[in-house]
Structures are given as C-alpha cells and as structure tokens.
Amino acid sequence: MGPQPQDTLMELGKRYGNVLSFRMGSQLAIVLNDYEAIKAAFSEQADVFAGRGGGFVSRYIRSGSTGKTHGVGAPQGNTWKEGRKFMLQTFRDLGMGKSHLQESIIAEANCIADSFINFNGQPFDPSPFLFSGAGNVIGSLCFGKRFEYEDPSFRRILAGLGQANVFKAHVQPLQSYPWLRFLPGRYRKLWHTVKDTSQYLLLFLRNIIEEHRKNYQETKTRDYIDAFFHRQREAGTTSTEVFQDEELLQNLRGFFTAGTDTTAITMRWVLLFMLHHPKIQDCVHNELDQKIEVGRRIVLEDRAKLPYLEAVIREVQRLANIIPLGLPRTNSTETILLGYRIPANSIVFPNFKSVNEDATLWNDPQTFDPTRFLDRNGKVHEPIHFMPFSIGKRACVGESLARMELFLLFANLMHRLVFKAPPDEVLPATNERITFLASGPKPFSICVFPRSY
C-alpha cells in the first residue's frame, strides 16, 4: 500500500465503500473509512470493539517479564479496564486542571521559549526542546520528577522515542511475520533496535520506581507511582492483577511514551503550519494582544478569551492527522457492522484521515482554515465527526491533559515569540509526513524572535 497506507485506503474507500477488508499475514484487517462506520463500531458497538489490536512487535513492547501483555494497552480482559479507571481517577486527583499541573506546563513553555531565544534568530531544529518539555510534563505527573534538557539519561530516552518514530514506518512486516527478525538484513537490525530501545526505557522506569519505593511515605501522594503503591498496600496479599508491579511498569511506559510523543509531534506540526501561514500567526498574535496583558503568562482561565487560538490548534489536529489510521482495535466476538460480517478477533483500523478530509463533512477540506471551528458567535465549536483523540472504550486516556498542555504551550509560546521560516531553506509541505503512526512532519528548521509589542 506504499509508505502512506491511509491515503491508499481512502482512495479505495471511494471506490468500494466505507468498510474494507484485507489480509495482514494470517489475520483479517478491517478499515473503517468514514465517520458513520467508525461511529457504528466504536460507539454503537463499543463493548464489542474494545480490544486492542497489534502484532508481534506491539505485543513484545507491551509485555512484561512473564511474556504476558500488561497495562492499559492490554488487548482484552478486565485488567486494562480497571487500570484505565484507576489511571483516570488518579490523574484527576493529582491535578488534571489543578494549579500545580498548570504551573508545570507553563514552566516548560517558558523553558522552551528561553531555549528558542538563545539561538538569536538563527535557524535550528525545535524538536528536541518540544520533546523535552512534553516529557517533563508527563514525567511530573507519572513520577514527580523533572529533568534538565541536557540530562544524558533523559536525552537518550527522548532519542529512543525519535528512533521509534522512524522504525514505525518499517515495522509492519515484522508485526505480521515475526520470523523475519531471524533473517540477515534490515529486519534483524530493526528488531534489535526495537528491543534495545524498549529495554533501555524499561530499565529507566524501573530505576525510577525503585527510587520511589525507597522514599515512599504512606501519607503522601506525589505522583501516579505513589498512588499505585497506596493501592498495592490497601490490597495487601490479595492484590489483583491490576496492581502488580508489571502493570505499573507498563502503564508508565505507555503513558510516558504516548504522552510525550503525541504532544511534541503535534507542537511540531503547529509550528510548521505557523511558518506556512504567517497571516494566521498574525491573527493569533492580534487576539493575544487584544485579550491578554503584555508580559502576563497565559493560564487555563484564559481559554474562553482566545477562541481563535483554540481553533488553530484544532485545525492543525485535523490536517496533521498524527495517527491517521488510529490505534488498531479488535472485536471480541463476531458481529455485523453496517451489513458486513466481521469475524471475531479481526484487526480494525479507523481511517481518521479519510474523515478529516471528507468533503461531505468539511468545506474545502484541504485548506487550512481555523474559522471552521468557530460558530457564528465566534466561540469554539467541535463537530461530532472531529475525533482527534478517537472515540469509544479505547479513546485516549490522556485527552484532558493533552488539551490542557497544547493550549498552554502554544498560547504561552505565541505570546512571547514570533516564528519565521529560514530565508534559505525550503520548508517541508504540510501534507508530507514521516510515517503513518504517530506521524510527524519531515525535519525542518525555524527562526525565532522575541515579540516587540
């Protein structure tokens, strides 16, 4: 299907309908190519399509020392449901929307801005700073720790995430045909990269968990790890599978990697779109100048004052399509979907790109136009077919944090800075991407200047 299968599948959908099937090795894959098909599966049959799909590599990454898949990313059963419920409740208790989490995000926004300014208007790659900032926000919530951007261990972890985004483009054959890892050549090398990256991250997280265990106090809840320890102590020897150490490790891995990756990649897209659309950047600056005092940091309470800025974020999410084929689901039982028989345990892909570029849902869908997310009164409006965090039982567990983070990062960076394209470089087009999973733009440089009010 080529390097961008979502495009091929979108075109096939126009010819053959909104539900397609094909074989991935021995397994049947189903593609949902429009909003009605995605809604029919993930909302109207939410319990049936609540399994998490994935091939050999995905199972390896999510498995613990026992070889069993762990964490909220587990494919089936009740463990992921209980773990997800606990994670959502813990994040709410820890401050999803509360002041200290907001302070953490604003502090990272200022660190990123200061790092950008240090280049004195010269071209540079913004990616490392965006990944560091996003990683620290997730880190503060998960394990109560902030890393300096130059910390060697932290940089290696973030470099590993960057590597992962590259090998995701080539890993699909290994998902379906794991025996390829034994053959000399690219897939053996790729497999060793996957293993090394995964094992280093797990070692990094195990060390953090052990550090917490040494300093643990029953009366304090600093972060998700402490909350998990509390629940383990409450359960004692009757602790369920949900609160075993392997579950903690894999939940940290999943949330840290996904939260860092998706936020940083979305912010890369935001900056690239601002470089391509300087007039829209001017509109964001004008709204900030009219609604926010000079020099004041922007907080969550300012959201209602900045509808255009919020609309820009949503329009970037629509066109960037950072996970255009979603995270695959599976159906626990055979079912009928829009007249089609779907055998049990099929892999189901929602083609979000097809929805986000559907001309029956969006006027002139290829055009970058933030005003499509504003109603007649100038307030933010999200149509039901806009699904940047998916829908159903496996919708993104970090949606509230991601929305909060994107707003505070983008607003505070825009309030302080002007972004310009390097005069002697050609920017990648906004429809060019590296891979079809956690898909970032092609590398680009940026010139940054402090705003002069």
From TrEMBL:
Gene Ontology molecular function, alphabetical: heme binding; iron ion binding; oxidoreductase activity, acting on paired donors, with incorporation or reduction of molecular oxygen, reduced flavin or flavoprotein as one donor, and incorporation of one atom of oxygen; steroid hydroxylase activity
GO biological process: organic acid metabolic process; xenobiotic metabolic process
Family affiliation: Belongs to the cytochrome P450 family.
Cofactor requirement: heme
Listed GO CC annotations: cytoplasm
Pfam families linked: p450
Keywords in alphabetical order: Heme, Iron, Metal-binding, Monooxygenase, Oxidoreductase
Superkingdom of the organism of origin: Eukaryota
Annotated positions binding heme: C396
Keyword Heme attached: yes
PANTHER family membership: CYTOCHROME P450 306A1, CYTOCHROME P450 508A4-RELATED
Protein name, as recorded: Cytochrome P450 2U1
Residues of the signal peptide: none
